[in-house]
Amino acid sequence: MKTAAVILFVITYVLLLTFSKIRAYIALASAALFVILGIISPNEIIGVVDWNVILMIAGTMGVVGFFIESKMPSLLADHIIRLVPDVRWAIVSLALFAGIISAFVDNVATVLMVAPVAVNIAKKLKMSPVLSVICIAISSNLQGAATLVGDTTSILLGGHAGLSFIDFFFLNGKPGIFWAVEAGALASAVVLLVLFRNEKQPVASYEITKVEDYFPTVLLVGIIVLLIVNSFVPAEYKPAAIRDMMNGLICMSLFLIGLVRKLIKTRDIKTFTDSLKSIDYETILLLAGLFVVIGGITKVGLVQDISRLFVKASNDNVFLIYSLIVWASVLFSAFIDNIPYVATMLPVAGEISRLMGITPNLLYFGLLIGATLGGNITPIGASANITGLGILRKEGYEVSTGTFMKVSVPFTLSAVITGYLLIWIIWS
Question: What long-range pairs does 149-152 form, CB within 8 A, spacing at least 24?
Answer without folding.
Answer: 149/56, 149/60, 149/104, 149/223, 149/224, 149/227, 149/251, 150/102, 150/103, 150/104, 150/105, 150/107, 151/102, 151/106, 151/107, 151/372, 152/57, 152/106, 152/283, 152/287, 152/339
